[in-house]
Amino acid sequence: MIDEEIQYDVKVINAFKRYGDHNVFNGLNMNVSSGSIYGLLGPSGCGKSTLLQCLIGIMELDSGQIDLKAKHLKDVGYMPQNLCLESTLTIKETFEYYGTIYNMDKKNINIKIDELNAFLQLPNLNSLIKDISGGQSRRVSLGVCLLHNPKLIILDEPTVGIDPLLRQEIWNGLTTMVEKHRKTIIITTHYIEEANLANCSFYLTLPVRLSYDYASSTLSPVVDLGPR
Ligand SMILES: Nc1ncnc2c1ncn2[C@@H]1O[C@H](COP(=O)(O)OP(=O)(O)OP(=O)(O)O)[C@@H](O)[C@H]1O
């Protein structure tokens, strides 16, 4: 397929970002095609979360350009690494709160709650956020990200602290969203094996000047390696 035929939901062009004198990325380029899962893999501290925060606009690049096809907030779902759930709400109230922010009606919110409950195997919906486990909170946070049915889904380590069987279910669910509903997913993870098992069109990318090739165990000065 020639490049002009591919539709991109996200393009990052020649991006630079530093904290003080620490360069996080230097001339990063990234193209995320519509209806794909794009994985950001890399060692702790290499800049994955920084890149996601720049994509959704809560942090700014020093220079370079980010083009998102999504024009409205409701077209994007973001799950941060540090969960920002209100501890005094129940799980159900949390979904109702975010659903209201996204202007969803009550009936629609309830339909999505049932769907997400089945997909993410949530605990009792009347449980307070402060009383549920870390893995359960992560699942609620993933649910909040998916609640309004966004086209572009940006997930920062969504499966950390979740048991292997459920992690696999979540990967299967994400794959279905891409294959059946043409969602576009950008995800950071340390679980490369699961991504492969889920048969995702997965990319190996470090948002720095080096990329790690798991097949040959080598680092190379390439940012975007393309589909495996
Ligand atoms: N607000 C900040 N001020 C200064 N340095 C920061 C800030 N946020 C991140 N950093 C540094 O920038 C680098 C990239 O951080 P980032 O959180 O993006 O990495 P990461 O790849 O997501 O790591 P992890 O896999 O551990 O989540 C790290 O060295 C981190 O210490």
TrEMBL record:
Instruction: Give the stretches traversing the membrane.
Output: none
A molecular function GO annotation: ATP binding
Record's InterPro entries?
Answer: AAA+_ATPase, ABC_transporter-like_ATP-bd, ABC_transporter-like_CS, P-loop_NTPase
Secretion signal: which residues?
A: none
Q: Which UniProt keywords apply?
A: ATP-binding, Nucleotide-binding
Matching PROSITE patterns, A to Z?
ABC_TRANSPORTER_1, ABC_TRANSPORTER_2
CDD domains referenced in this protein's UniProt entry, alphabetically: ABC_DR_subfamily_A
Q: What Gene3D superfamilies does the database record attribute to this sequence?
A: P-loop containing nucleotide triphosphate hydrolases
Q: Where is the ABC transporter domain?
A: 10-225
| Superkingdom, taxonomy of origin | Eukaryota
- Listed PANTHER family: ABC TRANSPORTER G FAMILY MEMBER 20 ISOFORM X1, ATP-BINDING CASSETTE, SUB-FAMILY H, MEMBER 1
Name this polypeptide is given: ABC transporter G family member 23-like isoform X1
